[in-house]
Structure formats: structure tokens, C-alpha cells
């Protein structure tokens, strides 16, 4: 007959044996991933991951740093709550192995990677989300995937290393953990931490609108210069409007995930209304920034109208100049036509030198009268613009 001690020892050996096999498999995958990364870029430094753990016994939260999943797996045994952040070289190739190392299914990872901007997958015992991580360089909007995996007592975030997403939060992640009440249930703790991570993601994405507004202010300054060529302003306004549309797409994608999380009733998260109400605040913040971005889009549209007005004004100036040239050419043609006609007629009668005394004044007088009459007629009909510019 087996005693309780024997059963517990056997169970512990079985669990340890399973963990050893999992760690061995993870170690092999980590070695393969490390070798491929070294072949791809032998000289570049490896991105460093970190893990923040709240111990089971109610001890003080602590932070670990590492490179591979194997650096964190042993510490998860005594964790009631843990957050692991992994910056990687390539999200598509590295995330599946990292997520599988921490017990997440490959189907969940594949489903998140197949989405374009955002995705939400609830598999009861595990939850996966894909959010857009925005990085703006001048008017180039770079959208990178941010993968969030959630299961009992663990949150795993994976993103590209060129996305500075959790640098600030990572510095005081232990303080964030300490603010979570030890007396709270496991799902409450997990939900509070997830909401804080989502909030940090939104804050970093909201910085993109500030960069676009700065570029918009610089462009407005250039619009005030009437001598600025339209060929330069047109492409710049288009780039800004295109960047704003891409930014709006990322906000809408984030809003879809937050709404799915708010109404999805995930099993791994809490049902406490007070805690879930924080998701409503996140949704409201995203909606506010969507409104701001749409308002800025309207401002850019008015800027395009201003540019079209400038272009039309330039065409009007050109038309005025052409009209004035045509009017003066009419006057000049009339002035030359009259004396030429008189000279032709007078030459047919064989005028002598003795006729110069009356012939020359007659030519000047008739030319002056014809020029004045032509100018008067052209001006009275409004064919001469009053102002060129």
C-alpha cells in the first residue's frame, strides 16, 4: 500500500521528468535558433530579454535578464505571476519557438502571425493577441507586430528589437508588480498586469501622432511661403496624409483587439467588473486619438485645397500676363497698321519731296489718333488687366 508521501514523491518525479524533457527540447530549439542567428549576423549584439516575477509565497518581486527561454523557465516554478518580454530579430521565425518553450500551442502562434495588423485568439486555457507597434521615422510609418500570450500566471510579449516598446516600463516593472495586491486572486493579478502592458503599448503608439503633428507644423510653415514650388509641396502633403492613414489603421486595429478583450469573456482573465472597467478607459483613449487623427486628416485635406488655390492663382496670374501682352500687341499692331496703310496709298499717287512738310505730320497725327482709339477701345472693354499679380 502506497503512502501519501510515496504518491507525492512519485508525482513530483513525474513532473520533474516532464520538465526536464521540455527543457531539453527547448534547449535544442534554442541552440538551433542561436546558430541561425549567428549565421545571419555574427557581429550584431543579441537583444536581451527580461522577466519580472512575483513569488508564490508573497515575497518581493524581482527581475531577471536573459537571452534564451531556458534562462527563465527554472524561475517560473515558484512564480504566482510572471511577465516575460522578448525582443527578437525576426518575429515570424523566432516567436513560434519562444512561445512553445513556455507552453503555448503552435496553432495559437500561427494564427496570430497570419493576421495583418491585429488578431485575438481565445483558446480557453490560453489567450493570444496581436497588436500593431508603431514607429514613425519622419513620414515613414513602420508597423511591427507585438504578440501577447497569456496563460495562467504568465504573460509573454514578443516584438521586434527595433521597436522600443517596453524600455521605460521594464525599468520599473518590479514597482508595477508591487502595486498589485498579494491578496488578489491569480486571474485578477493577471488581468491587472495585462491592462498595464496594453496601456503602455497604447502610450507608445500615441507618440506617433505627436511626430506627425510636428511634421504638419513644419509643412504649414512652408505653405505660408507663396514662392514655394507646388511640385515640392504636393508630394509632401501626400506623404503626410498617407502616413496619417496608416496611423489611423493601426489605431483601428488596436481598438478591435481591445473590444474583443472587453467583450470576449476570456477564461484566463477575471470577471471582476471593477478591474475590467479599466479596459473601457483604454478604449476611450484610443477613440480620442482616432478623433484627433481624423481631425488632422481634415486639416490636411484643407491644406490640399489651399495648395489647389495657390495653383489656380498662379494660373490666373499667367492668364493676366498673357491678356496684357495680347492687349498691348493689339494697340501696337493698330499703331503700325495705320501709317503703313497711308504710306501705301500715298505712294500710289507719286508724292514729291515738296510734300514732306504736310505728309510727315499727317502720318504722326493719324498714327497717334489710331493708337489712342485702339487703346481706348481695348481698355474700355476690360481687355487690359488692372493688376497682374
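^ Assign residues to that structure.
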Amino acid at each position: 500500500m502506497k503512502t501519501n508521501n510515496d504518491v507525492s514523491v512519485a508525482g513530483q518525479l513525474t513532473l520533474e521528468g516532464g520538465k526536464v524533457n521540455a527543457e531539453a527540447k527547448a534547449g535544442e530549439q534554442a541552440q538551433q535558433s542561436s546558430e541561425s542567428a549567428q549565421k545571419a549576423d555574427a557581429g550584431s549584439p543579441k537583444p536581451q530579454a527580461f522577466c519580472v516575477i512575483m513569488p508564490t509565497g508573497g515575497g518581493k518581486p524581482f527581475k531577471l535578464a536573459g537571452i534564451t527561454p531556458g534562462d527563465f523557465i527554472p524561475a517560473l516554478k515558484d512564480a504566482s505571476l510572471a511577465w516575460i518580454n522578448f525582443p527578437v530579430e525576426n518575429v515570424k521565425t523566432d516567436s513560434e519557438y519562444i512561445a512553445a518553450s513556455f507552453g503555448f500551442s503552435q496553432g495559437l502562434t500561427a494564427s496570430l502571425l497570419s493576421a495583418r495588423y491585429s488578431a485575438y485568439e481565445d483558446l480557453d486555457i490560453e489567450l493570444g493577441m496581436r497588436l500593431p507597434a508603431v514607429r514613425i521615422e519622419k513620414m515613414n510609418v513602420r508597423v511591427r507586430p507585438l504578440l501577447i500570450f497569456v496563460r495562467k500566471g504568465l504573460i509573454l510579449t514578443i516584438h521586434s528589437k527595433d521597436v522600443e516598446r517596453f524600455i521605460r516600463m521594464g525599468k520599473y516593472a518590479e514597482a508595477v508588480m508591487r502595486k498589485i495586491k498579494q491578496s488578489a486572486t491569480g486571474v485578477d493579478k493577471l488581468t491587472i498586469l495585462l491592462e498595464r502592458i496594453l496601456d503602455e503599448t497604447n502610450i507608445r503608439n500615441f507618440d506617433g501622432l505627436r511626430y506627425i503633428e510636428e511634421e504638419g507644423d513644419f509643412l504649414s510653415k512652408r505653405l505660408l511661403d507663396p514662392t514655394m514650388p507646388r511640385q515640392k509641396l504636393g508630394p509632401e502633403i501626400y506623404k503626410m496624409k498617407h502616413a496619417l492613414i496608416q496611423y489611423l489603421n493601426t489605431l483601428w486595429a488596436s481598438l478591435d483587439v481591445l473590444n474583443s478583450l472587453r467583450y470576449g469573456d476570456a477564461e484566463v482573465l477575471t470577471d471582476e467588473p471593477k478591474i475590467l472597467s479599466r479596459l473601457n478607459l483604454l478604449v476611450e483613449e484610443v477613440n480620442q486619438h482616432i478623433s484627433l487623427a481624423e481631425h488632422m486628416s481634415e486639416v490636411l485635406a484643407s491644406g490640399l485645397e489651399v495648395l489647389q488655390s495657390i495653383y489656380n492663382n498662379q494660373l490666373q496670374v499667367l492668364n493676366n500676363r498673357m491678356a496684357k501682352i495680347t492687349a498691348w500687341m493689339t494697340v501696337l499692331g493698330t499703331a503700325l497698321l495705320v501709317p503703313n496703310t497711308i504710306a501705301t496709298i500715298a505712294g500710289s499717287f507719286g508724292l514729291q519731296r515738296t510734300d514732306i512738310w504736310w505728309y510727315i505730320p499727317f502720318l504722326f497725327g493719324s498714327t497717334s489718333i489710331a493708337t489712342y482709339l485702339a487703346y481706348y477701345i481695348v481698355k474700355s472693354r476690360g481687355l487690359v488687366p488692372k493688376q497682374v499679380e
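Residues 315-380 form one domain.
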